[in-house]
Specification:
The complex is a heterodimer. Chain A is an alpha/beta fold. Chain A is built from 26 helices and 18 strands. The chains are: A alpha/beta, B alpha+beta.
Chain lengths: 667, 212
């Protein structure tokens, strides 16, 4: 029923119409002495508005003391008043604020730290399986930052599901890795058949970019629980048994990485690990003695400089280079950052996202302390008082291990520890780029920074920053203890050092191979992988993950190391070697990579954002448009901000150069 | 007693560098782009705008710097003494033009910028009265067309051939960039106009995503 709103003008009689709704008749436009004038209230103005609207909508010819206009129901009017009495914009409701507070805690006196935004988003996302927009508003209010800042971060990362209004989050999310190795092992089939088999539209099955389990392909993640060598049956049983967490084994195994020099690391059958080297075991076997000694020596006023210099010299002599992909000399990097003014910080990159790479995970889930000790040594030598470890969100098991073990280390420190913070990525390949990772640790979108200034000068929180890949730090203890010659004594074809190759694809025994630098792919397959998988012959291989290019079988004798692949338009990067057989096509691999780059481009610069999208479309044509593709290649390589866009054309150019017969060129 | 006593104290320090073979001076910390503009050299640019922080995202202003592996955005890079910069080398121009072309290739058929040169709106007909009106609740009342938003006078105006995509059209015509059919065929699915707000409408189909 619609009510009629009566507005009566003071015409002298002052009679209230009998059917007038009292709640609307709040304001009388009378003089000060008028008995009908009620106390002035904020509502007065609003009623006056209604009054004037009424006046406008009625002709002056009205002589009656009352005019009737239908403006809406009482509830509508109340709603309007309520709406207008609020602050503008979305406001946080009490319930959402309480819910957010329950997760992130009460606001500290100094306010919530801005850089913890992503950590807070994780807490909400974990608790509600999604991010409701009402929670984002509440979080913005609690953290005293703008809603836009929260929203832009929440929508940047793939693992945050922002749900608007009353939308519902899926009860369970199943992520099927569609990285190249998993795709070759049948990921597309799983993706196609799982939804029907599950028969529950509320369970979401989505493709995920490489989750770093290529040696166990195809890999599927049920919520946070990885299903390796996934089949429809194993995924279904994981769903039914509601195993949703990745729980690490016990910490009593003594894993010594250097024992595996020139050997394969992973088991051939991919049997789950029985455990890892925990804090007590690690210390019982001499762990942290080195860190303690160096910490003492460096702190010593007289010899501190000498000790730091000695360790840096070891790094330089060993020829150790950054093992995340760029291959910058470790000794030189330490020297550069050390020469910067304090306070300096360290950022550790375990955002192992390069498709085909899983070495960091394999080491981390066996032996976290060797890395932590390397980090301590680096922090002492370079003079660093805060270390931030950035771990990709896909490695839930590793996160549990690191959380436990860092706590144990802090509870019983072998030397004075720097501040150690473990940060959780949120599903963004771009955050493996050094400056994007820094942005992410600062709680922002992972968008690479323009250089100069270089992060060694102006990095995390504006401080000089030493950034290292996990594996680089992992070898520090062995290098110092065994001497630089130990490391540089390995090597083939004139190259020096050890490389942890992550081998996957059509080989009999995929896994991490701690092989000498300069080994060829043929030697790697024959000596470390037990040959090719049954029914497959080497056709092509990717020497360095998605960005490293693709080489044909005829180039199976090229030494694999930094700098040796440039003449072929490729690079080794993080040493992720993916092997293709004669039933595979290089163009399919290249397309898989380009789609990955398109998906993972942060969208900041035009060449990468638009170029990867256009290239992925062009590469689907039976016959490639090489002229347009090459123009795109050139602008991506030359004008992109970061390595993602600059390296994205590598697989395209490789196919054009080595596999023209696949794309409509001459055989 | 802090007043400057010599002219040198108030004169900004300058450094010399070469741009396209010509020696020019830049103030300390000045970007290549600004120094070039002071010398009458207009490097193509889209996301750069006076008064805003330069972000270097559109990559139209990239230049070649001797000794560097990739091109650098001139709007963000400070000139240093002796730097050898090429803004119109074949390599730099190739990227500048490609960026314009791929941005143009995603644009809709009709832009939103009034074209004063042609003295008519880019719309075939002005919207009938009432069309495109938005109710106070935010729903579009009668129109499926997004509101045309005439932009304030910008750089695309009065410089010869303003176009329907504003500055983007301006630079495309200055640099002789047209979209090849192969790329035109790959035009993205246009994002819908956001007219959820009573006072603002956002036409994302003409956005170059400069991230400003």
């Amino acid at each position: 029923m619609r009510w009629r709103l009566w507005v009566w003008h003071r015409m002298g009689d002052g009679n209230v119409p009998p059917d007038a709704d009292d709640s609307i008749l709040l304001c009388q436009h009378g003089g000060p002495g008028d008995p009908m004038v009620r106390r002035p209230s904020p509502r007065c103005r609003r009623t006056a508005e209604i009054h004037s609207m009424t006046m406008r909508s009625n002709t002056p010819s009205h002589t009656s003391s009352t005019t009737a206009v239908t403006l809406g129901s009482v509830d509508e009017m109340r709603e309007r008043i309520r709406r207008k009495s609020k602050l503008k914009g979305r406001q946080a409701d009490e319930i959402s604020i309480d819910e957010v507070r329950a997760l992130i805690g009460l606001r500290p006196d100094a306010g919530h730290r801005r850089d913890l935004l992503i950590e807070h988003l994780h807490k909400v996302n974990d608790a509600y399986r999604c991010l409701h927009d009402r929670h984002l508003v509440a979080l913005a209010k609690e953290m005293n930052i703008s809603m836009a800042e929260v929203y832009e971060v929440a929508t940047f990362y793939h693992h945050f599901d922002v749900i608007k209004g009353d939308g519902k989050a899926p009860i369970l999310t199943i992520r099927v890795c569609d990285g190249l190795s998993c795709e070759m092992a049948g990921a597309q089939d799983l993706l196609a058949r799982l939804p029907a088999l599950l028969g529950n539209p509320e369970v979401r099955v989505i493709a995920a970019p490489c989750i770093g389990r290529c040696e166990q392909a195809p890999a599927v993640v049920v919520h946070q629980y990885p299903v390796t060598f996934a089949t429809l049956e194993t995924v279904m049983s994981a769903v039914k048994s509601s195993s949703v967490q990745d729980i690490p084994g016990h910490g009593a195994v003594n894993f010594v990485a250097s024992d595996f020099a020139e050997k394969s690391l992973s088991g051939v059958d991919g049997v789950a690990l029985s455990g890892y080297t925990g804090y007590a075991t690690y210390r019982a076997h001499g762990g942290y003695a080195l860190a303690a000694t160096i910490a003492d020596a460096v702190a010593h006023a007289a010899h501190g400089e000498d000790e730091a210099e000695r360790i840096i010299k070891v790094m330089e002599d060993s020829g150790l280079r950054g093992l995340g992909g760029a291959g910058f000399s470790v000794g030189r990097k330490w020297r550069i950052v050390r020469d910067q003014p304090a306070p300096r910080v360290m950022a550790v990159n375990i955002d192992e996202g390069e498709p085909g790479t899983f070495k960091d995970r394999v080491y981390l889930e066996r032996d976290p302390h060797r890395f932590l000790e390397g980090m301590l040594v680096a922090s002492k030598v370079v003079g660093i008082d805060a270390c931030y470890i950035y771990l990709r969100d896909e490695y839930h098991g590793c996160r549990a291990i690191l959380e436990t073990e860092i706590a144990k280390l802090q509870a019983d420190p072998p030397c004075t520890l720097p501040l150690i913070e473990l940060r959780r990525g949120a599903g963004a390949y771009i955050c493996g780029e050094e400056s994007a990772m820094i942005e992410s640790i600062e709680g922002k979108r992972g968008m690479p920074r323009l250089r100069p200034p270089y992060i060694a000068e102006v990095g995390l929180f504006g401080r000089p920053t030493l950034e290292h890949n996990f594996e680089t730090l992992y070898w520090v203890r062995d290098l110092v203890e065994k001497g630089p010659q130990w490391f540089s004594s390995f090597g083939r074809n004139g190259r020096k050092g050890l490389r942890s190759f992550s081998v996957s694809g059509r080989v009999k025994h995929p896994g991490v191979k701690l092989a000498p630098a300069g080994i060829t792919v043929q030697e790697l397959i024959d000596e470390y992988c037990g040959g090719m998988a049954a029914g497959h012959a080497l056709y092509a291989y990717l020497p360095g993950g998605a960005s490293g290019g693709i080489l044909p079988a005829s180039l199976n004798n090229v030494p694999l190391d930094f700098d040796t692949l440039q003449p072929y338009g490729c690079f080794i990067g993080s040493a992720a070697v993916i092997i293709l057989g004669q039933h595979d096509r290089a163009r399919d691999a290249a397309l898989n990579m380009m789609k990955f780059f398109e998906h993972e481009s942060c969208g900041q610069c035009t060449p990468c954002r638009v170029g990867t999208a256009k290239a992925a479309r062009l590469m689907q044509a039976e016959r490639w448009d090489n002229v347009t593709l090459e123009d795109l290649n050139q602008v991506m390589v030359d004008a992109s901000i970061c390595g993602l866009g600059q390296a994205a054309p590598n697989p395209v150019r490789s196919v054009q150069k080595y596999f023209p017969h696949e794309i409509g060129g001459p055989v | 007693m802090n007043a400057p006593v010599t002219l040198a104290e108030v004169t900004p320090q300058t450094i010399a560098f070469t741009l396209d073979g010509r020696s020019i001076h830049a103030y300390d910390g000045e970007t290549i782009f600004k120094a070039a503009r002071r010398h009458g050299i207009d490097i193509p640019h889209l996301c750069y705008k006076d008064g805003y922080r330069a972000d270097g995202n559109c990559r139209v202003c990239v230049v070649e710097i001797k000794g560097e592996r990739t091109l650098a955005p001139s709007c963000c890079r400070s000139a240093t003494a002796g730097m050898e910069v090429q803004a119109s080398s074949e390599r730099a121009v190739k990227s500048q033009k490609m960026v314009l072309e791929i941005l143009l290739s995603d644009m809709g058929d009709v832009g939103y910028k009034w074209n004063d040169a042609g003295s008519q709106s880019p719309y075939p007909n002005p919207l009938p009265k009432g069309e495109g009106k938005i109710s106070h609740r935010g729903e579009a009342v009668a129109s499926s067309l997004p509101l045309p938003l005439p932009l304030p006078l910008g750089e695309g105006r009065g410089e010869g051939s303003p176009g329907q995509y504003g500055t983007l059209s301006h630079w495309a015509s200055r640099m002789n960039v047209t979209v090849r059919p192969e790329l035109r065929a790959l035009r993205r699915d246009q994002p819908k106009a956001d007219i959820s707000h009573p006072a603002m409408a956002v036409n994302l189909d003409t956005c170059i995503q400069c991230n400003l």
